[in-house]
Amino acid sequence: MNPSVKSFLHAPSSTWTHLVIDPATRSAALIDSVLDFDYPSGATATDSADMLIASIRALGVKLEWILETHAHADHLSAAPYIRAALGGRIAIGAGIRQVQAHFSAALNFEAGFRSDGSQFDHLVGDGEHLRIGQLDARVIATPGHTRDSVSYLIGDALFVGDTLFMPDGGTARCDFPGGDAGLLHDSIHRLYELPDDTRLFVCHDYAPGGREPRCLSSIGEQRRGNVHIREGITRGQFIALRNARDRTLGMPALLYPSVQVNVRGGEFPPAENNGQAYLKVPLQAPPRKSA
User: Fold this and answer.
1) 200 has which bridge partners?
2) Sign of the alpha-carbon dihedral angle for 137, 140, 143, 147
3) Interacting residues of 206 by C-beta distance below 8 A, sequence separation 6+
4) What contacts 24+ positions apart, CB below 8 Å, involve 228-232?
5) CA 233 to CA 227: how far, in whole Å?
6) What is the pLDDT of residues 96-122, one digit of tens each?
7) What b-and-e string marks burial along 153-166, b requiring 16 or more CB atoms within 10 Å of the CB?
8) Does position 6 have pLDDT exceeding 80, yes or no?
C-alpha cells in the first residue's frame, strides 16, 4: 500500500515536515517537525507546530509515530510538544547515542545526562520495520551527514532527511562530527537501488537560483540528475567534491541551540538553580598575534 503525503514548509529554516497517512486506517506518522525559535532573544514559539496539530486534527487521522531522520543542526524539534497534543511515539536512528556522546562531552552537559537514547520513545535500526496502520515503514540507515541519519521507506515514498536535497541542490554536508563523505556516497547508492519511480521527499530545500521551494523528487531524477552524485560520478570524485565544498561552508547559525535540544528528544536542557534553562555556546580564544 502507498501512503498519502502532505508536506508543510517552515520557511524560516527551509524545513519540510511530512505527514504520512495510511488511506485505509487513517493512521499517520509525522516526520521532522519544527519548533519556532528566535536565536537573538532565545524565545521559542509553537505557531508552526500548532498549525501542524490543527491540520492533523482537521484530517481526522491518528498520529502513531513522530519520526526524526536525525538530530538536526538547523532547527529545534517540536516532537514532544506534538506528542503531548496528539499522542504518538518519538523515534530516531540508533546512531543518536554516538551523537549524544560527542555533544555531551563537547558542550559539557549536566551531570547525569545519559548518552543511551533513552530520551526518545524508540530507537530504530537499519532494516527495522514500523507499522503505520496497514502501512509498512522500513528503516534504511543512511549515515554520512551524521551518524544517526536514517531514511524511511513507506510504500512508494522515501523520506531522506538531509541525505539528499533536490537534484539541483545536491547532497548534505559531511563535516559535522561523525560525518563522512564516503559513508554518504555509499548510503545514497543504497537508496539508488530502489525503483526509479519511488517518490523521494527531502527535508530541506534552499531553492537554488531563486526558484520556488520544492520537496518532491524521485529516485530516477536523483540518480540521473543530482548535481553532486549521479550516474558517472565515481566514489572518489564525490568524496573530493563533497570535501572541497564543505571547506567553504560556515557553521549553521542554529547548530549549538539545535543539537542541545534535539539530542534530548526535543526537550530543553534542565533549568539551573534560578529556574531558567540555558543554551551553551563554546567560546573560542582569539588567535595569538605574533610579536
Assistant:
1) 158, 217
2) positive
3) 14, 165, 169
4) 228/170, 228/171, 229/170, 229/171, 229/185, 229/188, 230/167
5) 10
6) 999 999 999 999 999 999 999 999 999
7) bbbebbbbbbbbbb
8) yes
Among the listed residues 188, 185, 177, the one whose alpha carbon sits nearest the alpha carbon of residue 98:
177
214-239 tens-digit pLDDT? 999 999 999 999 999 999 999 999 99
Instruction: Report which DSSP code applies to 228.
Output: S
pLDDT of the residue at 291 = 63
The CATH homologous superfamily to which domain 4-260 belongs is: Ribonuclease Z/Hydroxyacylglutathione hydrolase-like (3.60.15.10)
42-72 residue pLDDT tens: 999 999 999 999 999 999 999 999 999 999 9
The x, y and z cell numbers of residue 279, run together, are 543554551
Task: Evaluate whether 77 touches 91 at the Cβ level (below 8 Å).
Answer: no
Cell of 124: 530504530
Which of 138, 143, 194 is CA-nearest to residue 171?
Answer: 143
